[in-house]
Amino acid sequence: MTKQIRPEEAVKMIKNGSTVMIGGFLGAAVPLLMIDQLAESDIKEITLITIGAGYRGGGVDIGKLILNRQIKKIICSHVGTDPNLISQIVNNEIEMDLSPMGTFVERVRAGGAGLGAVVTPVGLGTEVEKMAEKITIDGNDFLLHKPIRAEIAIVKAYRADSLGNLQYSGIYSSNPVMATAADLVIAEVDELVEIGDILPEQVGTPGIYVDYIVPGHSSKKRQEIYEALWIATNKL
Q1: What is the pLDDT of residue 2?
Q2: Dihedral angle at the C-alpha atoms of 28, 31, 32, 34, nearest 10 degrees?
Q3: 175-198 tens-digit pLDDT
Q4: What CATH class has 3-115+149-234?
Q5: For residue 236, pLDDT beyond 60
Q6: Spatial contact of 109 and 177, defined as CB atoms under 8 Å apart
């Protein structure tokens, strides 16, 4: 059975210099409690793998890690909503590996599936060329990107049972694919349920991928957090 642990126990599995995937995008389907625990720790030099920057400015979700200067490298597809992240990248304080969003997700999927590369024409003639290898196949140019894997993935799901089966609800972004592409997977969930409460057709990530379950905020609490956030940021 998958082990249920507290957030403060889970964060101890992350060390200085760890490569960490964090699911979600722009505040949606983000493991808020685990990010808070990581932000409160003294862990530094993290290579962060995530689709994009925090929601509409610094200090929100993964933006907390940026403000704390805990990140040495970010592998992502979007940075435009966090001025602090942009500043640290421009000042060479954070190294960036940037891929178009579809390419990024495919790189993670390739890492989980054990594939050797992602080959795509997307990004030809742009800055993305500098972050990939240009190859020619049958007379056509493509960009070759290496797969992405992490030591630890922190994903967000709606529900989990004691076997670690995860159920998602609504848009859950990169979480399902990230759960396949790390050596150790920690799932933060809104609810813990009994075996059988999640029907087979509702399983978004089978428990075989999940090592630890962390009880996160309830769905109601998450709604309150995001309502307060959206009200605050819309006043800016």
Answers
A1: 74
A2: -170
A3: 999 999 999 999 999 999 999 999
A4: alpha beta
A5: no
A6: yes
C-alpha distances out from residue 228 to 14, 191, 217, 223, 234, Å: 30, 22, 15, 9, 10
Contacts of 3 (CB under 8 A, 6+ apart): 211, 212, 213
Six token digits for residue 90: 């421009």
Task: For the chain, report the end-to-end CA distance as a whole number of angstroms.
Answer: 46
Q: What is the pLDDT confidence band of residue 225, given thresholds at 50, 70 and 90? A: confident
Q: What is the pTM of this model?
A: 0.92
pLDDT at 1 over 80: no
Residue corresponding to tokens 């990024």 = 104
Per-residue HEC secondary structure of the chain comes to: CCEECCHHHHHHHCCCCCEEEECCECCECCCHHHHHHHHHCCCCCEEEECCECCCCCCCCCCHHHHHCCCEEEEEECECCCCHHHHHHHHCCCCEEEECCHHHHHHHHHHHHHCCCCEEECCCCCCHHHHHCEEEEECCEEEEEECCCCEEEEEEEEEEEECCCCEECCCCCCCHHHHCCCEEEEEEEEEEEECCCCCCHHHCCECHHHCCEEEECCCHHHHHHHHHHHHHHHHCC
**Cα–Cα distance measured from residue 30 to residue 114, given in angstroms and rounded to the nearest whole number:** 26
Residue 214 and residue 5 in contact, taking contact as beta carbons nearer than 8 Å: yes
What pLDDT digit, counting tens, does each position of 18-36 carry?
Answer: 999 999 987 788 999 999 9
Q: What is the mean pLDDT of the chain?
A: 92
